Structures are given as structure tokens and as C-alpha cells.
Amino acid sequence: MAGSDEVNRNECKGAVPIHTWVLISNFKLAYNMLRRADGTFDRDLAEFLDRRVPPDARAPEGVSSFDHVIDTSTGLEVRIYRAAATNNAGAGAVTLPILDFLAGTPSPDPFPVILFFHGGSFAHSSSGTAIYDNLCRRFVKLSKGVVVSVNYRRAPEHRYPCAYEDGWTALKWAMSQPFLRSGEDARPRVFLSGDSSGGNIAHHVAVRAADAGISICGNILLNAMFGGTERTESERRLDGKYFVTLQDRDWYWKAYLPEDADRDHPACNPFGPNGRRLRGLPFTKSLIIVSGLDLTCDRQLAYAEGLQEDGHHVKLVYREKATIGFYLLSNTDHYHEVMEEIADFLRANL
């Protein structure tokens, strides 16, 4: 099994509800069709297969969304989610018109702004992908705040550091918007969040923010994607067992990193031999969600330990029997308990 592209479907089925198995297995099938052995990627087919949903200003289930271009030079777009208010007559949800919302002034009541980076191993998905649209709506409901989902450029067409640059652009934009400021001090209460490659992006944007003296309220990482040249115990043990193979991961790193780089590049292995320690840096607090059946779980645990060794606050939530993507469907205790952890983290650090 090790080193192949084969996945043990029986072990996957036994670990997750059938709906999750179908969802992630379909993604796996599509992903295998899109990657080419020569390192190229079938982007046209990827766009066709990506199940996307449009933004919806009508506020279904109390959350409205709209797309907004924040950098015309690169075409960088974000999808903004906000909770709808209920009018005094109790006649349903009402939402401020988009242009009025964007031109709004700071709110006296503090609320979180979650800058979210979708997963997809730097190559797949978008801010409009249905599973991420649903997750962002969930974040609005549990936070009572605003979610800004970043449609960053993807590999291999746009290699390192394009995704990080787009994340930095999105952060600077969010910090500068009056309508995203709140509280008596009228400041932006920004959290960074992401899953898989999005979690990796959140880390690197947070480091740059700390270097620049920009205050972030917290990082929320879901199965963040890290790597390295030397295989870990979990990578050897879980290779091909729960939806993901090392061959998959190696392909994506080769597609994203500079062409002459290996997996000890700091983008992939931030605390590795070529990385940078963060002791003495005003790095933000972190909530780190780790699935015990994710083959890179040892990487994520080592990342959390590295932050703690450097004197930074870390809340680690380790779900021993969870697989990748458990937070995308509300059909397990893992999902509901982790959503409570996220809500508590947001409240505590607002």
C-alpha cells in the first residue's frame, strides 16, 4: 500500500457515516482524474466538476452572502457572509442592501470577522464550493459575526507564494474596512481560519501579520496541511487507509512549492530544518483541530507543540477517531463538539 495511490475503501467505510464516505470518496475520485503525472492539472475539468453554489442575498436560514472583488490587479474575490436581522414585527429576516453594508460605519456591538481559507490542497475548490459555502454559513450562525471567504489563486498555475499573497491582501483589506470594525474601540476583531491547505495559509498569513504588528484575535486551524521530507509514524501507518495517500500529498506539494524546493521548504514544514521559530514574536492564539485518522496528524501535533515551545497559547482539540473532512457534515459527535469548541474560542478571544 505505502507509496501507491490505492485507498482501502473498507477501512474508510468503517470509520465514517455513509454520507461522509460518499462525499469524500467522490472528491477522491474527481481529484485522481484531475492530477496528471507530469505535474499539470486539468483545470477545465476541475471547474466543471466543482459543485458550486452562487451567493444568496435573500438570507436563507438567516445568513446572506455576496461576492466582492477586493483586488482588480489579480481578480481576487471574497465571498462575504453575514447574519440577517429579524425585524421588529417578527416578519422574517431582513438584510441591509449590499452597497449600504459595504459603506457602513463601525458597530458599537463587538462581533468577530472570520477570514476563511478553503481547503483543497492548494489546487482544488473555491469560495463558492458548496461544502465550504455551507461551512461558512455555519460559522456565521455560531459566531454571530461576519465571514470573509477568500477565493485565492490555486496551484499549479499559481505556485508559492501566490496563495499567501492573496491571504495577506485579504487581511489588509479586512483590517481597513470600517464596516468590519466593532466595539467601543471600533477595531477589527479578525480571526484567521482554514482547513487543509487553508489552515496552512492561515498560519503563514498570521506570521506575516505578527511581523507587521497587526493584531489578530486568533487562528482556527482544521486539519492544517503541513509536511516534510522525512516520513512521520502516522504517515507510514495511515498511508492509503482513510481517503488519502502519501502519493497524493507529495503531488500537491510538488505542484505548489517552488520548482527547485523539497518538502522541507518553510511553506510546507514551518518549524523544520529550513523553517523559522516564533519565540518572541507576538503571534496570535491558536485553536488547532486534529483528526487522529488523518495521515498528517503527527505533523499537526508537532506544529501545535512547536507553537507551545515558543511560548504561544494553543488550544489543541484531538479527535482520535475522526477522519479528514469530518467538519463538513453535521452527522457525527466530532462535528458538533468541534463547532462548540470554535464558538467558545471566538467568544473567549473577541
Automatic annotation (TrEMBL):
PROSITE patterns in alphabetical order: LIPASE_GDXG_HIS, LIPASE_GDXG_SER
Active-site annotation: 196
For the Alpha/beta hydrolase fold-3 domain, which residue ranges apply?
A: 114-327
Return the protein name.
Alpha/beta hydrolase fold-3 domain-containing protein
Q: Where in the cell is it found?
A: Nucleus
Q: Which family does it belong to?
A: Belongs to the 'GDXG' lipolytic enzyme family.
What Gene Ontology terms for biological process does this UniProt record contain? floral organ morphogenesis; gibberellic acid mediated signaling pathway; positive regulation of gibberellic acid mediated signaling pathway; raffinose family oligosaccharide biosynthetic process
Q: Extract the SUPFAM superfamilies matched here.
A: alpha/beta-Hydrolases
Keyword Cytoplasm listed: no
Name the domain of life this protein comes from. Answer: Eukaryota
Q: Which organism is it from?
A: Miscanthus lutarioriparius
One term under GO cellular component: nucleus
Q: Which GO terms describe its molecular function?
A: gibberellin binding; hydrolase activity
Q: Does the keyword Ribosomal protein apply?
A: no
Q: Which UniProt keywords apply?
A: Gibberellin signaling pathway, Hydrolase, Nucleus, Receptor
